[in-house]
Design brief:
Blueprint: E1 3-4, H1 7-29, E2 34-40, H2 44-59, E3 63-69, H3 75-86, E4 93-96, H4 106-112, H5 124-130, H6 140-153, E5 160-164, H7 171-180, E6 184-188, H8 195-199, E7 204-207, E8 225-228, E9 232-236, E10 239-243, H9 248-251, E11 257-258, H10 265-285
Parallel strand pairs: 1-11, 2-3, 2-4, 5-6, 5-7, 7-8, 8-11
Antiparallel strand pairs: 9-10
């Protein structure tokens, strides 16, 4: 039976460490990291995410700034708000909650956020740096996944990693991080030929394809470490439940370690958002990132 990689415990440890770091930034540098979250519209899932982010931001001693805009807010108004947040010295991280309403250009909005305050790691400058010199801001979900992998496995050098999913938010940055960690990396997707056989070669299997329970236990190499990024809502036995992209029951019989859904990657995503905000506050203030 696979070891369960408990994302809630990992996230709590990271938040505890951040609270200590934030306290030292306040006492040693009079610096209080600030995170601004912008929500456009009434999407229920997005509202829950924003509420959780704001709560955890305050809990670690940071400042939280929330901006909730109506669904029919025009693009110019949103861009003006982002410009004001870029210029606000109390704000060190800006997160625009996705998805945006269809009348707003998501690409334009993402790249309107200063790359120094882009704690999502979606700005073209940060994407470019991740894939070249390894610097810049790393997207939160891949970063949290890497932290858990290193905690579980230690040195990842030489391991064969297969990522199922090629999104700009998870699949591609996850590949860049694993390459930097000296893994041999393959990016696959729903149209990959012989996908089952390819998955069976993986020492590390990252599932981020957005299809509920797509990856079955017999797709997994015995003893492999499985990171399930999927969050899918399905109807089962008359109730709505969350499941991942991996069939957890069958996979846990084969894998060496696996993240559950919920309670796996999700909590680490928010914790890494706070981590990125603290790092950017230090960069903006000219504080050595190895300090604290």
């Amino acid at each position: 039976m696979a070891t369960v990689i408990n994302g809630k415990e990992h996230a709590q440890q990271l938040r505890d460490n951040l609270a200590i770091e934030v306290s030292k930034l306040k006492s040693d540098h009079a610096l209080v990291p600030g995170l601004a979250v912008v929500l456009v519209g009434e999407d229920p899932a997005s509202q829950i995410y924003v509420r959780n982010k704001a709560k955890q931001t305050v809990e670690v001693g940071m400042k939280s700034f929330e901006h909730r805009l109506d669904t029919d807010t025009d693009e110019v108004t949103l861009l003006d708000l982002i410009a004001s947040l870029n210029a606000d010295d109390a704000v060190h991280g800006i997160l625009v909650q996705l998805p945006l309403p269809p009348h707003i250009d998501e690409f334009k909005v993402i790249n309107a956020v200063s790359h120094d305050k882009d704690v999502d790691g979606f700005h073209l400058m940060n994407v470019g740096r991740l894939n070249t010199d390894g610097g810049g801001v790393v997207p939160c979900t891949p970063l949290g996944s890497l932290m858990m992998l290193k905690s579980q496995l230690g040195d990842l050098t030489g391991l064969n990693a297969v990522i199922v999913g090629r999104s700009n938010i998870v699949g591609k940055p996850m590949a860049a991080l694993l390459l930097k960690a000296n893994c041999t990396v393959t990016i696959a997707h729903s149209r990959t030929k012989n996908l089952e056989e390819l998955c069976r070669t993986a020492d590390i299997l990252v599932a981020a394809v957005g299809r509920p329970r797509m990856i079955q236990g017999d797709w997994i190499k015995p003893g492999a470490t499985v990171i399930d990024v999927g969050i899918n809502r399905i109807e089962e036995n008359g109730a709505t439940k969350l499941v991942g992209d991996v069939d957890y029951l069958s996979a846990s019989e084969v894998a060496g370690a696996i993240t559950p859904v919920p309670g796996g990657v999700g909590p680490m995503t928010i914790a890494c958002l706070l981590h990125n905000t603290v790092q950017q506050a230090k960069r903006i203030a000219g504080i050595d990132l190895s300090d604290q």
